[in-house]
Write a structure and sequence with these properties.
about 550 residues, mainly alpha, Serine Threonine Protein Phosphatase 5, Tetratricopeptide repeat, about 0% strand, Tetratricopeptide repeat domain 22, TTC22, TPR_rpt, TPR-like_helical_dom_sf
Length: about 550
């Protein structure tokens, strides 16, 4: 056996003996597996996650920024943006030359770029930092480097892309928690405030995992140990001097205390942590009080309250943020969240009216949402804002009973204008929600053939395993309208219905949208386009 082969075998044996392996590209995340969706749709989901993480990077605490940058680099790599991926990993390596994941990820990207010498140098640096080289001489505690490496990998699991089932998402979240546990084992000497940041992220992952267990109807004995541990983690986070951690920890504690009623008896962790008489509303109130002078934290709380269905609390929190910082260019999040709250209030009343459970919805909600979004569109237009304001104009243009009649042609035209602007972007052209909304506008205007084309595109763009059937239902209505106007023959209608019915059966699942969602379209848009770290609370909370 030659020397190179022997050296390779020695290295493989050494790697097999390691308790952990730096880098993100070997992790058992859906991000690293062969995508199940078409390439264009997979790229769309990666880019949406990337956009959200760029916003998150601006808000992240200093110790957490390397973890965000690593994930941004991994997303760029999978999007074939190799130079950007390399830059992200270099940023981490320059700020922290002892960061193990930075050198492992750089070696991987350099190899892909054909930079053989750089790849070798990065691998050598990594070996030295891990104490694997003959002459390591690396300063610092290798235990701390290992701990931070594992924590960064755990963070990445919380924001995986490509999970198509709740069970799959639960597995990835559990793996992320396990990595944090291992990190804590290595990180006995990690500064306490940095460790509290880990506790906070772990609590976030646990809450999301518990939400999945609730949705799956899991036995409470399966939920109980993690529930009790989450309470203990949040109690530690509350000792942090950082108002961001304090406020969100109180908010999450309120969420947990509301969930305690889903158990047959109060979880013992509630008593062990001293929360026996604590009211969830008091927790939410403390969160708001801590954040009262911090618009960025108030905005985060407002989004959480909005997703929890606590709309009065959400709008009050938005108003507090806007009282402090009214400039829409600097505080666009508050305007956008307040607009979403008004739109959801309108949609809630609209659904009740359709079922005969209430009177006509208050269209003043639409006027308020329009005013807020127009402030944002003027100074920082974006795909998401164009979609939101397009949706508002759509509801302004249709009747408030069955959404079948045009009551304001100008509003419908304005909705189509904003949707056209949204579709100009590469991402916009791949969003089924945009095509669905566009088709609904065209249907109301009597353009059934154009509407059908949009609905077909919406069905084509929807995710495998989707629980959203609105696009297919709208398509059937549009095809029937064309048939009734003799634009389709009996045979053509039969072929079209058969073709799209087969496609819908292949791609949809019986799992319904969450019960608190008053509009499937609104839920789809918020779930897909919300911040990468803040979506429907049954699945995801900000980390």
């Amino acid at each position: 056996m030659g020397e190179p082969e022997a050296a390779a075998e020695d290295l493989e044996a050494l790697i097999d003996e390691l308790d952990y392996l730096p880098g993100h590209f070997h992790l058992e995340m859906q991000l690293n597996f062969e995508p199940r969706s078409p390439a264009s749709l997979h790229a769309r989901d990666l880019k949406l996650q990337q956009d959200g993480l760029r916003q998150e990077l601006e808000l992240a605490a200093a110790p957490q920024r390397p973890a965000v940058r690593h994930l941004l680099g991994a997303l760029a790599f999978h999007l074939e943006e190799l130079d950007e991926a390399r830059e992200r990993f270099l940023e981490v390596a320059h700020e922290d030359p002892g960061n193990l994941n930075a050198w492992a990820n750089l070696a991987h990207v350099s190899g892909r770029l054909g930079r053989d010498e750089e790849e070798e140098a990065c691998a050598g640096r990594l070996a030295a930092l891990m104490g694997l080289a003959a002459e390591s001489g690396a300063a610092g505690d290798p235990q701390l480097r290992a701990a931070r490496c594992l924590a960064e990998q755990g963070y990445a699991h919380g924001l995986d892309v490509g999970c198509t089932s709740l069970e799959e998402r639960a597995r990835v979240l559990a793996a992320g928690i396990a990595l944090y546990d291992k990190a804590l084992g290595y990180g006995q000497q990690i500064p306490m405030e940095e460790k509290r940041g880990w506790y906070f992220t772990m609590a976030t992952l646990f809450i999301r995992l518990d939400g999945i267990f609730l949705e799956l109807g899991s036995e409470e004995q399966k939920r109980l140990p993690a529930f009790n541990r989450t309470l203990a983690l949040l109690r530690q986070v509350l000792k942090s001097p950082d108002p961001h951690y304090q406020a969100l920890a109180w908010c999450y504690l309120g969420i947990l205390l509301e969930r305690k009623d889903t158990f047959s008896t109060t979880p013992m962790g509630v008593h062990d942590c001293g929360y026996s008489g604590t009211d969830p509303l008091d927790c939410f109130g403390k969160a708001i009080e801590i954040a009262k002078d911090q618009p960025l934290i108030l905005n985060r709380l407002a989004k959480i309250f909005h997703f929890l269905g606590k709309q009065d609390m959400a709008i009050g929190t938005c108003n507090m943020a806007l009282d402090i910082l009214r400039d829409p260019e600097l505080n666009w999040q508050a305007y956008c969240t307040r607009a979403k709250i008004h739109l959801r209030a309108y949609l809630h009343d609209l659904e009740r009216a359709k079922m005969g459970l209430g009177g006509m919805p208050d269209r003043n909600h639409l006027a308020c949402a329009k005013a807020d979004l127009e402030e944002v569109v003027k100074v920082c237009p974006s795909l998401k804002t164009y979609l939101d304001i397009g949706q508002v104009y759509y509801y302004m243009g249709v009747d408030a009973v069955q959404e079948l009649l045009a009551v304001d042609e100008a509003a419908l035209n304005q909705a189509l204008v904003f949707l056209a602007k949204a579709s100009e972007s590469e991402l916009g052209a791949t969003l089924p929600e945009l095509q669905l909304l566009r088709g609904k506008c065209l249907r109301i205007k009597g353009e059934d053939a154009n509407a059908a084309a949009c609905f077909k595109r919406a069905v084509e763009l929807d995710d495998a395993g989707s629980c959203h059937t609105e696009g297919f239902g709208c398509l059937l209505q549009a095809l029937l309208a064309q048939w009734s106007q003799a634009q389709l023959s009996d045979a053509e209608l039969g072929r079209e219905v058969d073709k799209w019915l087969r496609r819908a059966q292949d791609f949809t699942t019986e799992r319904p949208a969450p019960l608190h969602c008053f509009s499937h379209l609104q839920w789809q848009m918020e779930n897909r386009l919300g911040s990468a770290v803040l979506r429907d609370l049954t699945l995801q909370l900000p980390v």
